[in-house]
Amino acid sequence: MTNSVSCRLREAAAPIWEACLKHPFVTGIGDGTLPVEKFQHYMLQDYLYLFDYARVFALGVVKARSPELMRTFSANVDAILGGEMKIHRAYMARLGISEEQVFNVQPALDNLSYTHYMLAVAEARGPAEIVASILACSWSYAEIGQALAQIPGAAEHPFYGEWIRGYASEEYAATNRALIELMDSLAAGATEEQLAYLTDIFVNCSRYELGFWDMAWEIRT
Ligand SMILES: Cc1ncc(CO)c(N)n1
User: Fold this and answer.
1) Structural domains in the chain?
2) What is the pTM (predicted TM-score) of this model?
3) How does it assemble (predicted)?
């Protein structure tokens, strides 16, 4: 991965990712001290977020110019709607929230701005830019999951353990690795100008990730 495009993206966003890992919301999941009220707000917002996140991948299906790439994007739409959302649905059930109730929640401004930035990039550009915008989300959650799972007892926590196990799972890591490889293959032969744009997208999405943790921590609407 050294010297790869994905490595360059990761390095450009490194200080922001550090801040995400140290964020009180994230460390609160890790040590189990996060107030459930904050987590519930986050869960509702994140569930809404995932529908738009799946739409970004769906635009990848529209923009792809090869059947293989169409299938890759399509499989990711399915992995989000059917796989990752299982974590959310399990928490919704535990918190007593129905899918209908979620759809009556207004997206927080930090959430709406983030998803609409990704959707705007996806509408205007092509597969490489779509993957750059999605990779910041997927990869940062994979790193957060791995980091929290290393804290003794964290993955067994009666409430937050399930979230940690979901994002620390081999399934999630494998999907993320495939996205990293896809980024590198789509960016192969890109000009310096194109690479600079992919980096901007990745860094902006990382800033939005940090904003999402702030929104959740402060219960911003
Ligand atoms: C805000 C946010 N970013 C990334 C992910 C991982 O898909 C998520 N579930 N939520």
Assistant:
1) 5-218 (1.20.910.10)
2) 0.96
3) Homotetramer.
